[in-house]
Amino acid sequence: MNRSKRRTGRRHPLATVALLALGLVFTGGAYAAVSTGTAQAEAEPTSQETIEQGSKLFQANCATCHGLEAQGTGTGPSLIGVGAAAVDFQVGTGRMPMQMQGPQAPQKPPQFTDEQVKQLAYYVASLGPGPDIPADSLVNGGGDAANGAELFRVNCAMCHNVAGAGGALTEGKYAPPLTDVSGVHIYEAMVTGPQNMPVFNDLNISPEDKRDIITYLQYVQDNRSPGGFELGSLGPVAEGLFIWIFGLGAIVAITVWITAKSN
Amino acid sequence: MAQDDHSGAELVAADSSHAAPEFAGSRGTVVVPYDAFENPGFEPHRPRVTDEDPEREKRAQRTVYTLFYLSILGSVWAIAAYILFPMEGNDVGDVRLNNMFVGLGATLALLGLGFGAVHWGKSLMTSAESIDTRHPIGSTETTKQGAVEVFRQADEESGFSRRSVIRNSLIGALLVFPLPAVVLFRGLAPQDEHPVELLSHTMWKQGTRLALDPSGIPIKASDVTIGSAFHVIPEGLNELGHGRLEEKAKAAVLLMRLNPDELNEAADRASWSYDGIVAYSKICTHVGCPVALYEQHTHHLLCPCHQSQFDVANHCEVIFGPAARALPQLPIAIDDEGYLIAQSDFTEPVGPSFWERH
Amino acid sequence: MSTTSTQAPAPAKRSFTAGAADYLNDRTGIAVAIKGLGRKAFPDHWSFLLGEVALFSFIVILVTGTFLTFFFQASMAEVEYDGSYVPLKGVEMSVAMASTLDISFDIRGGLFVRQMHHWAALLFIAAIGLHMLRVFFTGAFRKPREINWVFGFVLFILAMGEGFTGYSLPDDLLSGNGLRIIDGMVKGMPIIGTWTSFLLFGGEFPGTAIVGRLYTLHILLLPLILLALIAVHVGYVFIHKHTQFAGPGREVTNSVGPPILPIYAAKAGGFMFIVWGVIALIAALFTINPIWNYGPYDPSPVSAGTQPDWYIGFADGALRLIPPGWEFVLFDRTWSFNILVPLIGLGLFILVVLSYPFIEAFVTGDKREHHIADRPRNAPTRTAIGAAGVTFYAGLWAAAASDILATHFMLTMEGVIHALQATVIIGPFIAYFISL
To answer: B114 and B227: one domain?
Structure first.
């Protein structure tokens, strides 16, 4: 503007436009700066953006127990080297952040969106090399269910039960049921060994074998038992309870009816 | 209500002052000849609604035959379901449907018959009761004497009680003759095996590689990372022509890696592990189930059958449950290619205890 | 309606039924039985029908079992599975397991019959148990029925044996581990244990003989003895006449109830079909013993939640309740008290129950005949003893499910086992004094 030239007070015709444009740039830029990256469709493992977001989430939600640099404290172990897979599993199934101390961290509704889970995962992965989130081809089934079933029986059934119904461990701990778990989480649990579950690295159970195990579990999830209701797949205990309470119970009720005086 | 003219059901007076005389002399410490209070007699017969109301009677009749017709329907349905629900492919769902519909048809057939018959009895058949007389179970004196007489005569004619040598040798022969048959059942056991010898040794020998169960692929020490649990069989087990399961039932092993400072090793067993990698028999020392549950952080091994617990950090000694002995340890080392091998067989018998074990 | 003619040369019109009856009677003399038994009275209380539940379940077991024998093959020869169940395709297993899978997946109605057979077996033994409790608490085992109590209890034990041998036939992972446990227990017996284990299994465990041998026991020896004892047991009820509860008009000298023909036949016959129908309904809708999940027996894998069928639970529970370390090496021999104590303890328990009528008769000095059933509250000492016994049994039974109790009620398994150890020792005394 040329102050010396005019003193009429009339604004430049483009002033409004310029002001609006400035305003938009200002608010849009501020929004973009503050938002959690909605501009991206998926978190990129190596993207600085992702890792920074993950770091922020970590400081706010995890550092209290796991330390500011994830080096571990008295209340939470070090996460350096656990890999993206461990975080994706623990946070994705809601086990972490842990609400309260107990024999183990139970599964609960996840506290973060998928996006945020990935950001946390890649942040922790950036701290030290560890198992990565498995590729889709390994977790979507399509493997050999028979081989998977045999491996499951040898390596998994003693804790999780042959049908994945879950089982007891010592001192109040338990191996949870697998009937409602996604393929990716099963893979990650196998490869990272959460809590007291052993680690099944790829030299023990190869990636193809893991795919076979997931294929088998998906078969069990997708196919109801041919005999009818499964009674929780808990075996003779459930069957015995059922026959006493419902079988014999119904029959005793009928005996009372049969021998009652007719009206 | 008493029925007339039916043998087997005799009228009994509702007057309690007669106790049945046959009971008076029964052998017992006390016979109470009189009841503490008067027998009030039978309750008056109470007619049912179907006895009095012909409409209800007709309705009951209809219910009964409807139930029987439903039963027929059920049988027909079961046969139809057999045809209509084939199980041709690999679809487990087909089996589920077949099982359910054939089963429900059978259920209807049976329950229809059952409820129909009971309803007929309860609502339409005469509801009067029958009365039988009880007699003491032991026979009358005459019958007993007759039996005694029979035996006495038989004894007299045979001389059974007189001829003691005949009698005793007969009893001896009768007692002894089944014994060869019993001895024949020894054939159930193998003729040429020595149980204690077999139970005391397994397939493991010096240099046998540890292999994955069930594939049989040998394992390198570097494969076993901290927190791992490998299920192990001796290399060569899968190639056995016969006796595979019998050998596996003794040779199954669990391989785990702990941080060496967490491992408390006895001085004479320090060389049995390799860099924190330890191998223990998987066969529970209680009654033989696989002790397969490994808790990575607590280092506990749990047997799912009777909940015996073993502490891997302390040479698998028993910390809970009915087991009495620690799991036997397999001494391991590595060969020149880095594969894990056994140094020798177990130094004690694996699995459940047996009498001769010392 | 039939018309009976008593004159020998029959005048013109006779109904078909009459003719047939005459024909039969001329050759068997059956009229005597009809006349004597046809209007027999049957005391009518609902708890008197429990023995019938057992009998009717047994008939189901016999019929369905016969069907199964046409398809099951009791061989432990190894074969590669080639049937319809995808997750077991190509897996090596015994012929016994493969044939059971074929019955389940490849024979129409096969799974239904298999499930009927197994559910009926569970119901059979449960009904015997409940029936036995009824007989106990009403004192119906007293003279003259002591021998019948003994036979009935032997039937109970044999039925448990039938069940155990039966579910071990498919050679699956669950029952195979059960056999492993039995073998471990046998080995723990002094002097004869090692040798007996080799006798039973034809050598080292698992061997290739056991399924065939259990099959012989299961379909031949045990059913024969069971049938004979059932005939004797029911025969005794006819001879002694059933007990009855005290009531108006009912005395020790009579037996009051609806006559066999027609009303009792209708009710009991109908009840038979109802029991069969209930078993069919359960078999149609509820899975039992899904061997396809367990896979073939192998000494290496095991499933969480490994329990025997419910009626063996008290024995498994007894094993679980023994504290650690009950084994000693003395005089160069191993003494496994962790196995001997349950064996001897349960053996004594069984002996006491078996001979209870004689114990009670000895203690009370009562030598009279008894035909009136006691109301449990009128026999307080016996009822209290029964309560103590039931508590003991229930504690052992619950212990067999210790791991499942822990996961489902969010307890520690150690806590569950300690609580049940206390229940089994102190519980019976508490129950006794509460019931008195």
So the answer is: no
- Shortest alpha-carbon distance between residue A110 and chain B (Å): 25
Cα C291 from Cα B242, distance rounded (Å): 25
Nearest CB among A163, A168, A236 relative to C310 is that of: A236
Domain ranges in chain A?
Answer: 48-127, 136-226
Confidence of residue B69 (pLDDT cuts 50, 70, 90): very high
Q: What CATH number corresponds to the domain at position B240?
A: 2.102.10.10
* Residues in chain A, pLDDT under 50: 1-4, 35-41
Using alpha carbons, select from A93, A113, A90 the residue that is nearest to residue A37: A113
Task: Nearest chain A residue to B229 by CA: give it.
Answer: A198
The answer to whether the Cβ–Cβ distance between A263 and B48 falls below 8 Å is yes
> Which of C284, C298, C366 lies at the smallest CB-CB distance from B107?
C284
Q: Counting beta carbons within 10 angstroms of the beta carbon of residue B303, is it exposed (0 to 12), middle (13 to 18) or buried (19 or more)?
A: buried
Please indicate, yes or no, whether residues B231 and B336 belong to a single structural domain of this protein. Answer: yes
**Is the Cβ–Cβ distance between B197 and A167 less than 8 Å?**
no
Q: Is the pLDDT of residue C428 over 60?
A: yes
Best of B94, B245, B295, B311 to mutate (most A CBs within 10 Å, chain A): B295
A250: number of Cβ within 10 Å = 14
Find how far residue B356's CA is from the centre of its chain. 29
Q: Write down the mean pLDDT value for chain B.
A: 88
**Model-level pTM?**
0.89
The residue of chain B nearest to residue C299, with distances taken between CA atoms, is B249
- Structural domain contains residue B50: yes
**What number is the ipTM of this complex?**
0.92
What superfamily does domain C43-244+254-303 belong to in CATH?
A: Cytochrome Bc1 Complex; Chain C (1.20.810.10)
- Among B340, B204, B320, B200, CA closest to B278: B340
Same domain, B303 and B226: yes
Strand pairing report for B277-281 and B293-295: unpaired
Domain A136-226 has what CATH class?
mainly alpha
Q: Each residue of B171-217: pLDDT tens digit?
A: 999 999 999 999 999 999 999 999 999 999 999 999 999 999 999 99
Quote the CA–CA distance of A89 and A192 in Å, as a whole number.
9
The pLDDT tens digits for B34-47 are 556 777 777 777 77
According to the model, what pLDDT value does residue A36 have? 46
Number of domains forming the structure of chain B = 3
Across the interface, do A235 and C406 touch by the CB < 8 Å criterion? no
Q: Does domain A48-127 have CATH number 3.30.1330.40?
A: no
Kindly report each contact of residues B47-52 with a partner whose C-beta sits within 8 Å and lies 24 or more positions away, as own/partner: B48/A262, B48/A263, B48/B123, B48/B127, B49/A263, B50/A262, B50/B123, B50/B124, B51/B127
Strands B130-133 and B332-334: unpaired
Q: For residue B14, what pLDDT is reported?
A: 40
> Residue B129 is nearest to which of C41, C300, C402, comparing CB atoms?
C41
Nearest neighbour of B295 by CB, restricted to A154, A169, A201: A169
The residue to which tokens 């503050």 are assigned = A34
Alpha helices (H) along chain B: 21-24, 49-52, 54-84, 92-123, 141-158, 164-176, 179-184, 195-199, 244-251
Cβ-based contacts of A243 with chain C (< 8 Å): 119, 122-123, 126, 282, 310
